[in-house]
Predict the structure.
Amino acid sequence: MTEDLTLNMNAYLPLRDVVFNTLREAILKGELKPGERLMELQLAAKLGVSRTPIREAIRMLEQEGLAVTIPRKGAEVARMTEKDMEDVLQIRDALDELAASIACEQITKEELEELRHTMHEFEESTKTGDVKRIAEEDVKFHDIIYRATRNPKLENMLSNLREQMYRYRVEYIKDEKNYPVLIKEHSQIVEGLAAKDMEMVTAAMHKHVRNQATAVKEMIREQEK
Amino acid sequence: MTEDLTLNMNAYLPLRDVVFNTLREAILKGELKPGERLMELQLAAKLGVSRTPIREAIRMLEQEGLAVTIPRKGAEVARMTEKDMEDVLQIRDALDELAASIACEQITKEELEELRHTMHEFEESTKTGDVKRIAEEDVKFHDIIYRATRNPKLENMLSNLREQMYRYRVEYIKDEKNYPVLIKEHSQIVEGLAAKDMEMVTAAMHKHVRNQATAVKEMIREQEK
DNA sequence: TCAATGTATTTTGTATACAATAGTTATCTT
DNA sequence: AAGATAACTATTGTATACAAAATACATTGA
C-alpha cells in the first residue's frame, strides 16, 4: 500500500461511506492488491479517521465481495482464483442475458438513442487508446441496458458482479486486438434491441460475456503463476 | 419488538457474527417486523453487548438486504413492496434455472439419492402440518440442488434471495391447498435431473418459482392494504 | 541445530465516552 | 389558537480506551 489514499471530504456523508468509497476505488484501481491486508490502524492513520468507520467500511466491502475477513486475523483484499472468476462469470452470464431480454421489451426510444450514442463514444475512445476512458464508456454502455430493466436490484447485482472482475478486466481492455470484436458485439446488441429481437440480443450478450470470460481467465492464469 | 432476543453465546465467534445471526433469525421469523426500527442502544441493552457489534451486524444485515439504513436516522427492517418482490423473483427465476441446468449436468448419484430422500421427507412433512418443518425440508431440497452446482457464489446468492422472501413465503407454506402442486413440482424436478433432461428441469424449476411468485405477491398485496 | 516455551508486540474485538444531528416538547408571540 | 422558536431528549456518528487474541521473536534446553 504505497499509494497515498486520501479522502474526499466534500460530501455530507457518514465517514464509513466515504471510507468505503475510497477503499473500493483503491481496490478496483489495483492500488490495493489482492491478498493485501487491510489493517485498521494503518488505514485509520492513512485516512485520518478512527478505526470505527474503517471497520464499518470493511464490513461493507465484505458484502461487495471485495474483501475477505478472517476472525481475529483481519481483513484482506479478496483474491480471485480462476475458479472464482468462472463462478462469477457463470452468474453474470445468466443475469446479463436476463437483463438483455428484459431491456429488449422495455427499452425506450430515448434510451436506445443514448445507447447508440454511447456505443459510438466507445468506438471513438478505442481510437485514443485511453484505457480509463474506454473502460468508462463500456461501463456506461452496459449501465444503460441494466437501467432499462427497471429492476434496481438486478442493476445493483450486475454492477456488483462487474466490479468483482474489474481489476482483471482492465488488462483485457488494454489489448488493442480485442477492440474490433468488442465494437462488433456492442453493435449487434444495439441492433437486436432496436429490432426487439430477443434471440439476437441474448445471443450477442452471451457471446460478449463469454469472450470476456476467456480473456479474464487468461489474465488470472498469468497472475497465478 | 416485544420478543426477548437472546444470544447463543456457545460459539467462539466475534460478537458481531452472533448478533448478526440473532437479528437475522428474528427478522426471518417475523419477530422483527418490516419497517421496525433497529435502535442500537435498545438492541445492545436487549442482547447485553455494546453498540459496536450491533452496528457491525447492522452493516452486515444491510448487505443481505434485510435492513435499510438512512444516515443519521438509523436502520430499520427492510420493507418489501410487491414491486421489490417481483424484482427479486425475476432474478431468482433466472438463477434458479441456471442452478438447475448446472445441477442437471453435475449432480452425482449420491446427491440425487439424497434429493429423492428429502423430497419424500418434504411430502411426509406436509402431512403433519408442521409449518416450520415443511419450510425446512423445502430449504433442504433446494440447497441440495444449489450445492450440486459446485458454485459457492451462486449457492450464496440463491440462499440470499430466498431469505429475502422467507418472511412472506411462510404464509404460502401454511396453505394446505398448495401442497399437491409443490410435491408434484419437486418430483418433476427430480425426474428431470435423474433423466438429465435439461429442458424438463429448467421448465419445472421455472414453474416452481413462478407459482411461488404469484402466491407471495398475493400475500404482500394483502399486507399492503 | 532444532524444537519448545515464554515474552513482547501487533492487531483485532469490545466497551465506553464524547460530539453532532434529528426529533420532540414546551414556551412564547401574535 | 396557530405558528415559530427555543430548550430538551433521544439517537446516531466518531474517537478512544481497554481486553483478548494472534503473531513474531528471542531464549532455553536437549
